[in-house]
Structures are given as structure tokens and as C-alpha cells.
Amino acid sequence: LKIINVVGARPNFMKMAPLIEAMNHYPDAIHPILVHTGQHYDEKMSQSFFVDLGMPRPDIDLGVGSGSHAEQTARIMVAFEKVCLDHQPDLVIVVGDVNSTMACTITAKKLGIRVAHVEAGLRSRDMLMPEEINRLCTDVLCDYLFTTDYIADRNLLAEGVDAQKIFFVGNVMIDTLMKHRQMASQLDLREKLGLTPQGYATLTLHRPANVDDRDALKGILEAVHEISQTMPVIFPIHPRTKKMVESFGLEGFFNTSDTVAGVWITEPLGYLEFLHLNMGARLVLTDSGGLQEETTVLGVPCITMRPNTERPITCEEGTNTLVGHHKEAILAAAQRILHGDTATGQIPEKWDGRAAERIVDVLLRVESGAN
Ligand code: UD1
Q1: pLDDT recorded at residue 259
Q2: Counting atoms of ligand 1 from 1, which one is nearest the CA of 134?
Q3: Lowest-confidence range among 34-38, 168-172, 258-262, 351-355?
């Protein structure tokens, strides 16, 4: 079984790593090829994850880089078509919801190649999110849809997807978290930064709706700045956000003194370093998708600064609270958490570190009868 595995952007790497590991248990049955589209290319957004996660280097790097949505998607499609024609895979595996996920799905399907989507069925119902468009296009085309929870199954069935294509396997990103948790806990970054367990918050921010609009970004930074007067907030800043902060002239919200309180900007952190910081955080503020799931498993309260989420299970069962991007709502949610007014939640079904194993088992079974 010749499988092309596709990664492109930071949140793809921790989803693909356990799949490759699981495939490597069957060297006689599976021949995996790893393709990196190059959507993310900075050392801190890409290479450092391969090192942290012990992933093999990509066999093929398409080097497409940044651009508008159409430019980036088109460049990935043109380059990936050549790879598919050269290598003639039986199957392409895509993960998550980034432009690389959608572009490679469309390309492979038009060449008649079967495609599997890992993390299928998530829906925010927000068509202003580029990722929602990517998710819809990808799922409608894929032959195998691997889901993380029952809500995703329900979404796909409601869209008319054949139940036989859907496999509820759990969450591959949590496979990676469980594997690296122990290692991350042993780092000494927290001490180096002068932070005490439960004595700080972490922040991530990169959604276009939050960072490309000056008022939205300013409101969020005002709220975060206020929270940071109670406890330091560590903010590994995404390249897109850094660019916008500078162009809007909002650098004044960040700490330049040597007091510990305040909002501390860092470069994007490696996987292990960031996991280490999140494990000890009193609260996490984010607009990311994956972090909502990671905090649910870690039992750390999470404030999601978005009006909706494609991962509602993290609110229903986990530690996540959706608050939108308005200053007052963010502050009110932070106050509730700081006063201890939050439930610890539970870990969703099959988020147990074995999702990748299940996926490979399914593929070996269903693909042996395919063609
Ligand atoms: C992408 C994904 C988003 C994911 C995020 C994680 C899409 C539509 N979006 O958003 O779902 O949550 O990755 O980070 O696929 N840049 C760099 N260096 C890099 C990569 C990007 O400087 O290595 C800068 C460039 O200025 C670029 C901008 O960030 O134009 C945006 O990058 P892009 O890949 O288009 O989307 P993200 O915002 O990273």
C-alpha cells in the first residue's frame, strides 16, 4: 500500500507524527511517503516540530510558501499533481483543515486517487473562516473520514455522507500529547522564565478575524493586558500576528520592563516547550483550534476568543469556554476562572493515545479490498 502523507502547516505536524509511527509497524504492508507543501517554512513554525516530535524529514518538500488563499492553494495543487503523477500512490492522507489539506485532496481526487481525511466532520458553521471552507471541500471528496468525536459523525451523517465511510477513531493530536507529556514536564523553561506553576497564563492569537482587524485586536490586547496585571501572560507570537501588531502600532501592550507581570512576547515556541508551559498554566487564552483540545485533556481552563468553535465537545465535556473577542467577556471569563469557579471537565471518548493505531488498522482492512 503506497501512501502519500501530506503536511503543510504547524498544526499538521503533531497530527501526522503518530500516524507515521503507526505505519512504520507494518514495513511489509505500507510504503509511506511524506510530502511537506511548505505552507509554513520558518524554522520555528516547521523544522523545530520535526525535531521535537522525532518525525522523519519530508521525502518531498514543495516549498510553496505564503501568498493569498488562491495563490497558495493553486501553487500547492500544481506542485502536488506532479508528485502524484510521479509516485502513483494508492492513497493520500490529509490531516486538519489548512489550505494544504484541501488543495491536496482536490488534486488527488481529480487524478482518481483515494483520499483519507483525519479529523473529519468538524464544523464551526462559520463560512468566514477559511478553515470551514477547507473542511467542507475536503470531507465531501474523501473516501475515508476519520473522526475525533460523536458530534463530527453526526455532522457528516446530516450532510448525507455514507455511514460506511465514517470511522470514529479518536484524536491523533492527543496521541502526540500523551506520548510527549512526561518529556515536556521535565523541561526547565518555567524556572528559567521565573514562573511558578499555576502562577501565569499563556496566550495564542492568529485568526484573521481577531488579528487583521485593528479594533478586534486592540480589544483583545486590552483585556489580556488587564489580566497580566494579576499574573504574567506568556505570548508566543505567530508571524501573522506580529506583522499586524506592528502595522497597527499596538506594541505598547507588551512588557518592556523587568517586572514579571505583564504580557511577555516570545518567538513561536517548540512543541515540547509550549506543552510544558500549558501544563503548568493557571489558564490558557487562545483562538486556536488544537489548543482547545489539548487543554481539555490537560484539565487546564481555556478561554477561546472566538464566536464559535468547530470543537464543541471541548465545551460540552472539557474545560473550554467560548467568549468571543470583546474585552468585557474575556475579562469576565478570566475572573470566573481566577475565583475557582470552573469545572475540571472530562476527557472525551477515545482521546486515549491510540487513534493512529486505529486508523492504520482500518486502512489495512479496507484498502486490502479496494481497487
Ligand atoms: C494557517 C492555517 C490555520 C492554522 C495556522 C496555524 C489556513 C487557511 N490557515 O494560518 O488554519 O491555524 O496556519 O499557524 O491554512 N508566515 C511566516 N512564516 C511561516 C508561515 C507564515 O512568516 O512559516 C506568515 C506569512 O506572512 C503569511 C502569514 O504568516 O502570509 C499567514 O500564513 P498562512 O500559511 O497563509 O496562514 P496562517 O495564518 O499561518
Answers
A1: 75
A2: 8
A3: 258-262
Whether 209 and 242 map to the same domain: the answer is yes
* Domain-embedded: residue 343: no
The total domain count for the chain is 2
Number of C-beta neighbours around residue 259 at 10 A: 7
Ligand 1 nearest atom to the CA of residue 39, by list position? 34
Give the position, in ligand 1's atom list, of the atom nearest the Cα of 72. 35
Task: Find the 211 Cα to ligand 1 centroid distance in Å.
Answer: 12
* Residue of 6, 12, 15, 39 best suited for mutating to test ligand 1, as the one with most atoms within 8 Å of CB: 39
Give the C-alpha separation, 152 to 169, whole Å.
11
Look at residue 106 and tell me if it is in a domain: yes
pLDDT of residue 221: 97
Q: Render pLDDT for 74-90 as a digit per residue (tens, 0 to 9).
A: 999 999 999 999 999 99
Q: What ipTM goes with this model?
A: 0.96
Burial of 133 (0-12, 13-18, 19+ CB in 10 A): middle
Would the pLDDT of 371 be above 70? no
69 counts as catalytic:
no
Domain contains 345: no
C-alpha cell at 201: 497564563
- One domain for residues 60 and 127: yes
Task: For residue 6, report the distance from its CA to the centre of ligand 1, in Å.
Answer: 16
pLDDT of residue 31: 98
**Could you tell me if residue 347 is inside a domain?**
no
Looking at the structure, tell me whether residues 201 and 135 fall in a common domain. no
- Residues within a 6 A CB radius of ligand 1: 9-11, 39-42, 45, 66, 72, 97-99, 130-131, 206, 238-240, 243
Q: Are 60 and 86 in contact (CB under 8 A)?
A: no
- Tell me how far CA of residue 100 lies from CA of 51, 70, 187, 287, 312, in angstroms: 21, 12, 32, 20, 24
Q: What is the pLDDT of residues 321-370, one digit of tens each?
A: 999 999 999 999 999 999 987 767 899 999 999 999 999 999 999 998 77
Domain harbouring 322, CATH code? 3.40.50.2000
Q: What is the residue with the minimal CA distance to atom 26 of ligand 1?
A: 240
List the domain range (segments joined by +) for residue 135.
Answer: 2-171+352-368
Closest Cα to atom 34 of ligand 1: 39
Same structural domain for residues 192 and 326? yes
222 and 197 share a domain? Answer: yes
Write down the catalytic residue from 206, 238, 276, 325: 206
What integer pLDDT is reported at residue 369 of this predicted model?
Answer: 77
More confidently predicted of 369 and 158: 158
Task: Determine the Cα–Cα distance for residues 144 and 167; give it in Å rounded to an integer.
Answer: 8
